[in-house]
TrEMBL record:
Pfam family for this entry, one: RNA_pol_Rpb5_N
Keywords: Nucleus, Transcription
Name of the molecule in the record: DNA-directed RNA polymerases I, II, and III subunit RPABC1
Family: Belongs to the archaeal Rpo5/eukaryotic RPB5 RNA polymerase subunit family.
Cited NCBIfam families: PRK09570.1
Subcellular location: Nucleus
A GO term for molecular function: DNA binding
Organism: Oleoguttula mirabilis
GO cellular component terms, semicolon-separated: RNA polymerase I complex; RNA polymerase II, core complex; RNA polymerase III complex
Key word Nucleus present: yes
Domain RNA polymerase Rpb5 N-terminal positions: 7-115
Stored InterPro entries: Arch_Rpo5/euc_Rpb5, RNA_pol_Rpb5_N, RNA_pol_Rpb5_N_sf, RNA_pol_subH/Rpb5_C, RPB5-like_sf
Gene3D superfamilies: RNA polymerase, Rpb5, N-terminal domain, RPB5-like RNA polymerase subunit
């Protein structure tokens, strides 16, 4: 194996680990072994005979855990509380992750990915690209509903930001926990401090507009303290 192939193999190994850890932290069913795959196992599974890594082999799918399903199940509407026929549908499902094999990503690549998500009935898709998609390609992403599509650059996934000692623990609240929080402090959600959807940790957790995240920080005086952010 050439030095270039060896470096690229190590680089993609780190990226895959970060992506799987990210999905596990969101609440998808991934084992510790999958999230922390060794370099040797990565080479055996995702490299060709010459030792060169193959991005097409790195795609994976995961299902949400029961805890994640609970967090993404909306509360019943007041008018429907006593209506047994009004079943609350979780706003979550299978996630599919794909790694772009081409060095550049355009409209046709994102449309093809969206079509795959729709055909396979994946709720969320993560598309990992070698470079940022073209501006015209990014413009069409909002029109590719009902699927949720997220795009990450490989370089942004080389390091897992959530594991950095200076990044506090972020935990998504369920709809029920959010309701209790607002009732306890007699607040409207708009009165909470805010976190933007493009914040690095909001992107890491896949936060959606209106969700509330709990942030645990260390304190020299109090030990640990919690704050809350409303996603906008």
């Amino acid at each position: 194996m050439s030095d270039e192939s060896s470096r690229e193999l190590s680089r993609l190994w780190r990226i895959l680990r970060t992506v799987k850890q990210m999905c596990a932290d969101r609440g998808y069913e991934l084992t510790e072994e999958e999230c922390n795959i060794s370099l040797a196992d990565f080479r055996a599974q995702y490299a060709d005979e010459s030792g060169a890594p193959q991005r097409t082999r790195m795609a994976f799918t995961a299902r949400p855990t029961d805890d994640m399903v609970t967090k993404y199940t909306p509360l019943p509407r007041p008018a429907a509380r006593n209506n047994a026929a009004d079943e609350l549908v979780p706003q979550i499902g299978l996630i599919h992750v794909e790694f772009a094999n081409e060095p550049s990503v355009g409209i046709k690549h994102l449309k093809a990915f969206a079509q795959l998500l729709n055909e396979k009935v994946y709720w969320t898709g993560i598309y990992v690209s070698q470079a940022a998609p073209t501006p015209s390609a990014l413009k069409i992403v909002p029109s590719l509903l009902p699927t949720v599509m997220e795009i990450f650059k490989e370089d942004d996934l080389l390091v897992n930001i959530s594991r950095h000692e200076l990044v506090p623990k972020h935990t998504l609240l369920s709809a029920e926990d959010k309701k209790r929080l607002l009732e306890r402090y007699r607040l409207k959600e708009t009165q909470l401090p805010r976190i933007r959807m493009d914040d690095p940790m909001a992107r890491y957790l896949g936060l959606r507009r209106g969700q509330v995240v709990k942030i645990i920080r260390k304190s020299e005086t109090a030990g640990r303290y919690a704050s809350y952010r409303w996603t906008i």
